[in-house]
Automatic annotation (TrEMBL):
It comes from Accumulibacter regalis. It is found in: Cell membrane. This is Binding-protein-dependent transport systems inner membrane component. It is a multi-pass membrane protein. The chain crosses the membrane at residues 9-30, 114-138, 145-169, 189-211, 248-272, 292-318. GO terms for cellular component: plasma membrane.
Amino acid sequence: MLAYIVRRLLYALPILIGVNLITFALFFVVNTPDDMARMQLGVKRVTPEAIAKWKAERGYDKPLFINGSAAGVGVLTDTIFFDKSARMFAGDFGRAEDGRDIAREIRTRMGPSLAIALPTFVLGLLVTVSFALLLTFFRASYLDFWGVVLCVAMMSISGLFYIIGGQYLISKIWKLVPISGYGGGLDAWKFLILPMAIGVISGIGSSARWYRTIFIEEISRDYVRTARAKGLSEVTVLFRHVLRNAMIPILTGVVVVIPLLFMGSLLTESFFGIPGLGSYTIDAINAQDFAVVRAMVFIGSVLYIVGLILTDISYTFVDPRIRFN
């Protein structure tokens, strides 16, 4: 197992380097350092001298990838790519265009993002799996039919509808919770309960329908017929056999959510005014702050790779036949 984890970590290194290179290249294809300077300084009445000064102060006056005028390793290290991207592998995210330390902002904003994402993830998983098991138990019945219809209807509705509709109904009409904002301490639940509820409800349609498909496929296998022949009840068959054998595809789907647990939801945090990493990323995109966008893409890549490794390890707990050498 240890050798497998080490190999996976070594495989992840070129992937992270590739993601870094692609992100860096794409950003500077769209926005050159001169464009960034004009946006920060203001398009009107900006002078070439002001642009040159802005670039020099922030390290954008160097070549992008290769510095032909430098000697030795400076050919690669005395470049914008090394200063702005390569140092992230050592945990140095640098500073945003407004001068604030990115690592400090990430540590500060991680708490609100986790406060929303973790409960939403856990409750959503419990609700969707339970609903899918209920539909499977009553398969080929009217409850199953209308449950699938409900899932298709819910997954066909945009997430923005749930957010705006929830804010209008719960906050504006019923005035049960604040419409937006965030407060620390014990009062935080008032600002978090509506985003959490909307996150759970908006994910029921697609997730429950997918889990139901997995359970229906499992329940037709030979081992289920054998369990029934031994006299086990349908509930026991579902929870002790079908659910356990369906854990591998469920765990695989969970991997996609892991980066969001730390990086937050872009739409939810923006609409509800939550000072988390999701809103931080949106603000950086609007301001064309490459330093912050680059850092968030890098962190998301690292979390996704870590999630894949953890998922592979978790396979060994739900299926003893799986072994990694």
